[in-house]
Specification:
Layout (H helix, E strand, L loop, with lengths): L1 H14 L1 H4 L1 H11 L1 H28 L10 H19 L6 H6 L2 H16 L3 H23 L12 H27 L7
Helix pairs in contact: 1-4, 1-8, 3-4, 5-7, 5-9, 7-8
Subcellular location: Membrane
Organism: Halomonas nitroreducens
Main location: membrane
Length: 192
Amino acid sequence: MTVMILGLVIFLGVHSVRIVADDWRRERIAQWGEARWKALYGLASLVGLGIAIWGFGLMRLDPLVVWTPPVAMRHLVALLMIPAFILLVAAYVPRNHFKAKLGHPMILGVKVWALAHLLANGRLGDIVFFGAFLLWAVLDFRAARRRPAPAPASAPPAMSATLASLVIGVGAYAVFAFWLHRVLIGVPVMPA
């Protein structure tokens, strides 16, 4: 589990700079330029995520079961992941109502994803992994709400963008739930 925790510290640490050291972040961007900052941020994020995922896989080889969730929780997770995917997509689709109303749909999507997976996984490593993401998302959302609001968008939200977020989100969910989760994670969403 040490490898997974190291990866989480790197990945979530990089993503927490804006929470704990926003002034330092702005100084680095001013000093290095936005492109260099984003490149270093992205590289550190990828390294941390890769180590966390590798460690998560290692943890699964020798799990410590804390509790056994009821089978019904798998159905709840499958249901909760639909809005999680829609919120994730809404973070990248310009001018949608989700982003206009919620402000930070990706962070909310991470909250839903992490909470859902905590409900259905009772191994210590799962609790640490998903709990770390949930804690980060709660703190990041709180910090984002405290920052000055960005300038309003020049154009109002469009229903077409909102519908695109919904359709792409549900489509991405379907692909992930019915195929990619088993391929990438090794666990079917709904075992037979």
